Structures are given as C-alpha cells and as structure tokens.
Amino acid sequence: MNVEQVRRGEHVTFMPIEGHVTGLIGYMLGDPAARLAVVIDPPLGGTELILALLAEGAQRLSMVVRTHVHANDREGDSCAGLCERTGATLVVGHTPHSHAPTGVCAVHHGDMLTFGGETLSVLATPGHTMDSVSYLWRDRLMCGDMLEFGGGSGEDDQSSPALQYDSLTRRLFSLPEQTLIFPAHPMKGRRVALLSELKGRLTPMLGAGRDAFIASMALRRTAVG
Predict the structure, then answer these.
(1) Each residue of 66-78: pLDDT tens digit?
(2) Is beta strand 140-142 parallel, antiparallel or unpaired with respect to 193-194?
(3) Which of 5, 80, 125, 213 is the most exposed place for a label (fewest CB within 10 A)?
(4) Dist. CA 179–CA 68, nearest whole Å
(5) Chain-centre distance of CA 8, in angstroms?
(6) What kind and span of H or E run contains 69?
(7) Neighbouring residues of 107: CB distance < 8 A, sequence distance ≥ 6
(8) Which among 73, 89, 72, 76 has a CA at the least distance from the CA of 38?
(9) Cα(220)–Cα(29) distance, rounded to whole angstroms?
(10) First CA to last CA across the chain, in angstroms?
C-alpha cells in the first residue's frame, strides 16, 4: 500500500487501482488516523481488491466517487455492489436535467467532500459527458476522461467539444502549474503528468481558439464514426 507522508507527522493513503477488464484507473485515498477512505472511479472487477485493501488498512469506505457516468455504464453495477457491501455513499456529478436516484449524492462545482481530516474539492468539468466532474485533493486532480478528445460514436456519445474547451481553459488551466493530473485512462502510456507539462502539450490544440477546437473535434468524431 502506498502511504505517503504529506505533512510532518501525518500520513495518508494514495493508491492507483488499475482495472484489467476496461483499463480504467481508479484511486483510493485514505485517512488512516480516522480509518476512513474513499475510492474514485473503482474499476470493473476491482471490488475484491478494494475490500482487501480496506481490511488491510483497517479503514471504512465512506464514499464511492464517480467522475462521470456513461449511458451504457459498465462500472455502475460494481460501484453499486461496492456501496452495498461497505455502506459507502455513491457520489456522482450533478446534471441540470436529471435527478440522482435515492441514496446517491449529486455534487456541484465548489462542493467539498470530507473523509476524516481530508477534503476533496469538486470541479465541474463537463465536456466528455455532461455530468463530468474532477476532484482536487491536495496537489492532485483526478480528472476522469476530461483529457479524452474526439468523443465516441453512436448513441452513447455524450460529449460536448464546446464545454470541453471551456473546462480545459477555464477550470483545468486555472489550477497551480505544479498540480499533478491523474486521468482515468493512461495518456499515451503515462499515468500522471504535471499541469505545466499538459499545458505545453495542449497549446497547439487549444491555442487556435474555441471555434477551431470545436471544428477539429467534429472532424475527429466523423473519422471515428
């Protein structure tokens, strides 16, 4: 288990959990002093591992947190099952035209999620899906598929290039440049990057402006379709 000393005399748990079924990367964060943990985007097939890690650390899972949910959600059943087995609260991003099911916590931009002495700050980052949110913890942002470009094809494509451009330029780029970015899928084989590095990499794509970005994403979508 990856236990990091972040401040003098204080230890916290931070562990990436990579799924073998979908390739999704989830993240477990824990406050050992309070014996509380949260899991962000637990991957399909990862339930038993998560339960074993909780038992090993003598921690209780307080929240199962999703960065986004697709219409053909593959992780939904395993997330619901993990909540049922642990008593954790399921957390999803709020969307203006839908209501969260009973027992599900829908979060908005600026909300704070606490577990023990730790806090997750909620950033609304729609674009990949309408409900996409990212979670800032200390110097780390778990951003789901915020950095997936081009959208998919077919009826499950919920992407909005316009909103994605706004989320990238107004939300992601406003964070400190030393922020560590952790995605839900590897970025060209990388599993973490500094925000300053990503800014440099994305400048050619975003620098031409919002309309040009939207047009570029439309061409990518046509190619995928």
Answers:
(1) 999 987 877 777 8
(2) unpaired
(3) 5
(4) 21
(5) 28
(6) none
(7) 91, 92, 93, 94, 113, 122, 133
(8) 89
(9) 35
(10) 42
Question: DSSP string covering 2-53, please?
Answer: -EEEEETTEEEEEEEEE-SSS--EEEEEEETTTTEEEEESPPTT-HHHHHHH
Q: What is the largest CA-CA distance in the chain?
A: 54
3-state secondary structure of 179: coil
Can you tell me whether residue 139 is helix, strand or coil?
coil
171's tokens:
């939300």
**Helices (H), ranges, the chain:** 47-56, 76-86, 161-166, 195-206, 210-224
**Contact indicator for 207, 47 with CB cutoff of 8 Å:** no
Chain segment 176-217, per-residue pLDDT in tens: 999 999 999 998 889 999 999 999 999 999 999 999 999 999
Quick one: tokens of 18?
Answer: 């990579």
Distance CA 168, CA 57 (A): 36
